[in-house]
Amino acid sequence: MPKSEIENPKIEIEQIRPELTWRLRQRVLYPDSKLYEMEMEEDNHGYHFGAFKDNDLVAVVSLFKNGTDFQFRKFAVDASVQNMGIGKTLLNYIINFAIAEGAERIWCNARVTAIGFYLRYGFVQTGKHFAKAGFDYEIIEKKL
1, 26, 36, 81: least surrounded by Cβ within 10 Å? Predict the structure, then answer.
């Protein structure tokens, strides 16, 4: 998909290389980890998107296709721009991207602390919980 200014006229969303997601992933999601630990083996098999505000990368997400299921991972919005609609804009962008690619469902392993955000945009809780690396997660999904 080309550059886009969806819902938030001050934000541009672009598809980016996977390594461009790593610094923001680390800073927002795993501040106690090393930068090199942010690379996922599957990064080379997914789509990666960045939201830019004033040419600064302020939010990232990675999207992976498995048939008609799309999983998004490592959704990170810089703390300095949270609650400005950037996460909503990026989430809606990847949902529309997935639909255009034939998705029937989009899902993620949501940190329990972020579930409220996703519920506001039509995601539902599955009741499938787990813990990993000191964080509690629940699988949430949205039928498309």
Answer: 36
Q: Could you tell me if 51 and 5 are in contact, meaning their C-beta atoms sit under 8 angstroms apart?
A: no
User: Residue 22 sits in a domain of what CATH number?
Assistant: 3.40.630.30
Tokens at residue 125, please?
Answer: 């809780």
Q: Give the SS3 label for residue 43.
A: helix
Domain presence at residue 15: yes
Q: Please give the order of strands across the beta sheet that includes 105-111.
A: 11-15, 47-53, 56-66, 69-77, 105-111, 135-143, 124-132
134: region left, alpha or beta (phi > 0 left; psi from -120 to 50 alpha): left
* Whole-prediction pTM: 0.89
Instruction: Report the pLDDT value the prediction gives residue 2, as an integer from 0 to 100.
Output: 42
Strand spans (E) along 17-85:
47-53, 56-66, 69-77
Q: Between 36 and 46, name the one with better pLDDT.
A: 46
89 in helix, strand or coil?
A: helix
Structural domains counted in the chain: 1
Domain that holds residue 17: 11-143
